[in-house]
Each structure stands twice: as structure tokens, then as C-alpha cells.
Amino acid sequence: MRKFTADPQALFRYRGLPPVGLTVSMALQHLVAMIVGCVTPAIIIAHAAALTHREQVLLIQASLVLSAVTTLLQLFPIGGRFGSGLPVIFGVSFAYLPSMQAIATGRGGMAAVAGAMLVGGALALAGTTFQGVFRNPLVSSDMLGVSNGACIGAALSILLGLGAAATQGLAFVFGIAAVLITTAIPRFMRRESTITLVLSGIIVSGFMSSMMGLIKYLADAETQLPDIVYWTMGTFSKVTLDDVKAIGPLILAVAAVLLALSWRLNLLALGDAEARTLGVHVRRERRIAIVCATLLTASSVCLTGTIGWVGLIMPHIARRLVGSNNVRCLPVSMLVSAIFMLIIDTAARTLTGGELPLSILTGALGAPFFALILVKQKGVE
Fold first, then answer.
1. Any long-range contacts for 160-169 (C-beta under 8 Å, 24+ apart)?
2. Residue 380's pLDDT is what?
3. Which of 72, 92, 112 is the last residue of a domain?
């Protein structure tokens, strides 16, 4: 085995071993640079959002912990895909400070930031799960009618004057009903193809839209109608920290369940017969995945209203980055979607003098992307 020589120039050689003194001094230099890069952005954002002293400390600690975790991932790659194997020190990029400050100082503050990340991750995770369960890249919460169904449940709760818990419960029930109807139509027609499932989702979404029109007609124009319109357009401006604290733990818990089932989603993608051969209880696993994905969609609707296209776009971007393995695709889609929603929310607040509804921007990006997916789906019947 080759013996390393400890000399000052070894730092610039392949597999060089610098002297101990030089190694320690460089380590301290990187440590100081990392701390400054982690603490300074957190302090700036904390002051912009007028956080309390306790909240500032928590934000700084979270920044340090996440930077440490990402640095360790770089040093010790997982599966040869996550991490470079190089001593890359990760901090917090100052490039995102203007966007974060714009969100933190606008309506919603840090609650909008947390809500954007939670909802973005939840919608992408739900979309990736639906696409894996149904083995169909054109499926999402929107295409299956889940988003519209959940929105109907939330609007009905507002119309009846029910509380937040009832709103979430009705959103979940109507979301489940929508996905059951959408998947039942192709079975009734005995044509379980990609295009049939998409058309079934369009049928269910159209019916849900008509129901939403009826609810708007019956709602009080002074008190109930503005809130219902809010649910149908999607915005983070009315999200509060209490809302995040109430719904955030549920989203994180359901997301943890789906992440734990990610390798089983890979087996379900092989087909029912192959999955049964490998010991998977297909019906049970599929039901768990559908219930969890629907619950994520319903929780997102309860927090911010309906935000379309995110659950369709983000899974495809994640697969472009890390491949089709759900063990990697699920967490990456959550991360990419969280960043995407922060960008969209910043654009919604800064493009005009007011604040654009999020569905306008996501629809403007999602519709062409969906058309591109359809063009690339060769042989879809």
C-alpha cells in the first residue's frame, strides 16, 4: 500500500495527507465559514419576520443541523447517488435571502414560508404516490379529481359553518370519494388504459366543479362566498402559525408513512402478479398508499385551498433527477416541490401590486408541461 507523505504541498495532490497543523487550521477555517454561512441568513430572516428570541434560536439551530446533515451526506454518499464523497461544506445560500425576506415581510410571514414548504412537499408526495400506485405517469391529485373533491368538502364545511376539524374530515371524505369514482369508471367500462383513467378524472372533476358552482350559489355573498373563493384559488397569505401547528404534524406523519412504504411502491409498480409473488399484500398496500396520498391532498386543501398541477409536474422533475426508484424519488420530489412553491409564492407576491392566486401561476406552468408529457407518451391508448 502506498505510504502518504505529510508535507504542505500534499494538500494539492491526489489523496495527499497534509501535516496535522495545516489540517487543523483548515478545519477551523471551514468551521468558521460554515457557521457564518448558516447563522447569518437565519438571523436576517428572523429579524425580517420579527420572530421572538426563542424562535430565532430554533431557526439558527435548525439551520446548523441541516447544514451538518447535508455535509455528512456529501462526505459519506448513500448508494452512490446522494453525495459526492468529497469534503464539501454546506451552509445556507445567501442567494435565497431576497425571496425569503419578501415572503417573511409580506402577508403571512414565516407561516407562509412553512405552509409553502409543507403544501409543496405534500402535493408532490401525493402525486408521486398516485403515479406509482396506478403505474401511470399522467395521474395526479388533480387528474383523479381528489383536489376538487377535497375542495368541495372544505367549501361544504364553510357553507354549514363547521369547524376546522370538520373541514379536514369532509375534505378527506370527498377526496376519497372522488378517487374511488375515478378508478371505478374504467373498471366498469373494462378499459383500464391510461387515457381512460385520465378521461374518468376529467369527468369527476367536471362534476365536482358543478357541485362547487352550486355551493357558491347557495353561499352568503357577504360572509361565506369570499372564503369559498379563497379555497378554489389557493394562497398562503391567510395561513397562520396556528394553522401550521395544527395541520403540519399530520402532513409530516403521513409523509413519514409513505416514505417508509417507498420500496413497496417499487414492488407495486411491477404489477399485481409480480408483487404478490414477492410477498406483497397488493390490495392492502395499495389502499394504504391511496388513503395516505388523499389525506395529504385534503390537508393541503385545508391549509391553502386548491393548488393545481404541482402533483403532476414535480414527480416528473424528480424522476429526471434521480430516476424512477421511489426510495429516492419520493424525498427528492418533496424537496424540489417545497422549493418550487416558495418560488411561486414569491412570484405571486411580487409580479403585481397585489397578490396573484397561486393556481394562476401553477396552471400557466403546468398546462404546457402536461401537454409535453402527452406528446412524449408514445403508444398511450
1. 164/246, 164/302, 167/302, 168/247, 168/298, 168/299, 168/302
2. 46
3. 92
Long-range contacts of 71-76 (CB under 8 A, 24+ apart): 71/34
SS (H, E, C) 207-242: HHHHHHHHHHHHCCCCCHHHHHHHHHHCCCCCCCHH
354 DSSP 8-state letter: S
Greatest distance between any 2 Cα atoms in the chain: 82
Give the CA distances from residue 380 to residues 2, 322, 376, in Å, rounded to whole numbers and listed in that order: 57, 24, 9
**pLDDT tens digit string along 299-327?**
888 888 889 889 989 999 999 888 889 98
Q: How far apart are CA 172 and CA 176, in angstroms?
A: 6
Which of 92, 126, 141 is the last residue in one of the domains?
A: 92
Secondary structure class of 82 (helix, strand, coil): strand
Tell me: pLDDT of 286 over 70: yes
Q: Write out pLDDT tens, residues 8-27.
A: 566 666 566 677 777 788 77
CA separation for the pair 147, 238 (Å, rounded): 19
The rounded distance, in Å, linking the Cα atoms of 208 and 143 is 12
Query: Which three three-digit cell numbers place residue 105?
Result: 415581510
Domain span at residue 75 reads 1-92
